[in-house]
UniProtKB/TrEMBL annotation:
One of its GO terms (biological process) is L-tryptophan catabolic process to kynurenine. It comes from the Bacteria. One of its GO terms (molecular function) is arylformamidase activity. Coiled coil: none annotated. InterPro entries: KFase/CYL, KFase_sf. This is Kynurenine formamidase. Gene3D superfamilies: Putative cyclase.
Length: 307
């Protein structure tokens, strides 16, 4: 453990066979401690609504949904397979075709890899991608290995601390700004926390063209800060965690590499923070359970903050 570093990053901080990363810090004891934060029983929904017009990178592709059966034609299916429905019963459903990184979502460790000198890409814990990837995701590190997230959540309102509605496109948040915003709020980060960072960029959610042209984000130096604090997950109110344009030209999404590949710290994106920002709610129980999809690289989330 003491020998681990961002340069010497595998085996992981949590063992050579580990697949869950910093979620190892979620324990019965930590869950009970987080649950004790609940005083009012008020739930804040931190997820955006998914529809076919939401902002999403072309790499992931827009979600497609359509009504598969209506009540009117569904009755024909039921009559054929279940016998004639004499009590007026029918049912209808919706068929979904979406990326596992749609809307408010969490990234899994098989989502990002780092190219090595030998030409192979390595995933979390030094796993060679070509040895585990297939037509149906990956045989290791798939979403089915991710436990539910039940923890203490912390909001860091960086935009509010700097006195703006939103940070400018390409702005790279630095650790000293996180620390200063925390101090101004009277909030501290503890081991095992989920840290939500408010940039204000989520205000563009209903304007996909603006939202997808770029974003503020977490600067590269926030990686060591996260490891030092021993957090388990970041959440941001934009689509890619890192600033776009890049903090350093040609260095694409370094927080994705340092967190998902090396440190075992997950990323949540498109978190809807506006209500807790407006109410200045900086500490809460946070709960999310990703869809248990074998081999998947992420999952849409219904993300809840409870006070």
């Amino acid at each position: 453990m003491s020998e681990w570093s961002f340069e010497n990053w595998y085996p992981s901080r949590f063992g050579a066979d580990d697949q869950i990363g910093a979620f190892n810090l979620i324990t019965p004891e930590s869950i009970l401690k987080a649950v004790r934060l609940v005083r009012t029983g008020v739930i804040y929904d931190l997820s955006f609504v998914i529809d076919q017009d939401i902002p999403i990178p072309g790499f992931h592709g827009s979600p497609f949904t359509n009504t598969q059966y209506t009540l009117e034609n569904g009755v024909e299916w039921h009559n054929k397979r279940m016998g004639e429905m004499k009590n007026g019963y029918s049912a209808q459903n919706l068929r979904l075709s979406i990326s596992d990184h749609t809307g408010t979502h969490i990234d899994q460790f098989n989502h990002i890899g780092e190219l090595q000198p030998d030409g192979d890409y390595l995933l979390y814990n030094g796993i060679r991608n070509k040895e585990v990837v297939s037509t149906f995701g990956t045989s290791r590190l798939g979403l089915e290995t991710m436990p539910p997230m039940i923890a203490r959540g912390i909001l860091i309102d960086v935009a509010g601390f700097k006195g703006v509605d939103m940070l400018p496109m390409g702005y790279a948040i630095q650790p000293d700004e996180l620390d200063a915003a925390l101090a101004a709020q009277g909030t501290t980060v503890e081991e095992g926390d989920v840290v939500l960072v408010h940039t204000g960029w989520g205000k563009h959610w209903l304007d996909p063209d603006t939202m997808m042209q770029g974003e503020p984000g977490l600067g590269k130096a926030c990686g060591p800060w996260a490891v030092e604090k021993n957090i388990i997950c970041w959440g941001v109110d934009q689509f890619a965690t890192d600033p776009i344009p890049y903090e350093n030209p040609g260095e694409a999404l370094p927080m994705h590499i340092s967190m998902l590949v090396k440190a075992g710290i997950r990323l949540m994106e498109n978190v809807n923070m506006q209500e807790i920002v407006d109410r200045r709610i900086y500490e809460f129980l946070i709960v999310a359970a990703p869809l248990k999809i074998k081999g998947a690289t992420g999952s849409p989330l219904r993300l809840l903050a409870i006070t």
